[in-house]
Amino acid sequence: MVRIAIANQKGGVGKTTTAINMATALAASGWKVLLIDLDPQGNASTGLGLSQGDRVNSSYDLLINEVPLAECIGQTKVPGLEIVPATVDLSGAEVELVGFEERTHRLKKALDSAESGRWDICLIDCPPSLGLLTLNAMVAVESLLVPLQCEFFALEGLSQLLQTVERIRARFNRQLSVMGVVLTMYDRRNKLTEQVSDDVRACLGDVVFDTVIPRNVRLSEAPSHGLPALIYDHRCTGSVAYIDLARELIARLPDRKVAA
């Protein structure tokens, strides 16, 4: 199972929107997809149509209570896409994890014990912080997908994230790498957008995906209907961009089990 964390310590950069729509695009391509909602806000769970009553066992139970992964799975409206939902309980997990041994490896342990062959790929929607929840995700995966909003302060946040990745590589997970940076909320009418894009590409080169995610009203509307944008309106520019991004991501995987 390929494991990818979608992470950026800055909030409002499109992590959850990217997680939901990339998971949907990959499922539509024939992949068996698991999405883990590791954000206490639970927006990925809500955006895929799970009510609070549907979240019997959550990512909190997976991490803190060691409930088996198979018992934490929630079903979505997207064929081929399953989710480990999040509840508000997860907001206290950062404090509770401090008291555990191997507190940085609990998610990895849960994924390592998962049923073999049930999923082709696992995406993890991380919270907007570099705390123990995000650290657990980074220890558990091989790759990071970093959504980056096209604004000035985004570059400073990216630098901090890359430093954290290097520390985790040195101490916990030598396999960890940045699969790619995706530019989000892209507005071609804004000169700052173009400047940030040029600066990021000059700094990181091919690590930055060619596909950019535009500012799009339909992307913002879709979660209120409990649907990914790719189902809510598959023709909108945001949906088309995420389909293109999914193709790029599949092309970067070393072992493409399913054709794009």
Keywords:
single chain, 260 residues, alpha/beta, Rossmann fold, seven-stranded mixed sheet, 11 helices, 7 strands, 14% strand
Explain briefly what this protein structure is:
The protein is an alpha/beta fold and 260 residues long. It is 40% helix and 14% strand. The protein contains eleven helices and seven strands.
* Overall pLDDT score: 91
* Fraction of residues in H or I helices: 40-55%
CATH class: Alpha Beta
> How far apart, in Å, are the first and last alpha carbons?
17 Å
Give me the secondary-structure category: alpha/beta
Task: Give a description of the structure.
The chain has eleven helices and seven strands. The protein has helices spanning 15-28, 43-47, 59-63, 93-97, 106-112, 132-140, 152-171, 191-204, 217-221, 229-232, 237-252, and strands at 2-6, 33-37, 74-75, 81-84, 121-125, 143-149, 177-184. It has one domain (2-252): Rossmann fold. Strand 3 (74-75) and strand 4 form a beta hairpin. A seven-stranded mixed beta sheet has the order 3-4-2-5-1-6-7, sandwiched between helices. It starts with a strand and ends in an 8-residue tail after the last helix. By secondary structure, the chain is of the alpha/beta class. The mean pLDDT is 91. The longest helix has 20 residues, at 152-171.
Task: Give the arrangement of secondary structure elements.
Layout: E1 2-6, H1 15-28, E2 33-37, H2 43-47, H3 59-63, E3 74-75, E4 81-84, H4 93-97, H5 106-112, E5 121-125, H6 132-140, E6 143-149, H7 152-171, E7 177-184, H8 191-204, H9 217-221, H10 229-232, H11 237-252
Parallel strand pairs: 1-5, 1-6, 2-4, 2-5, 6-7
Antiparallel strand pairs: 3-4
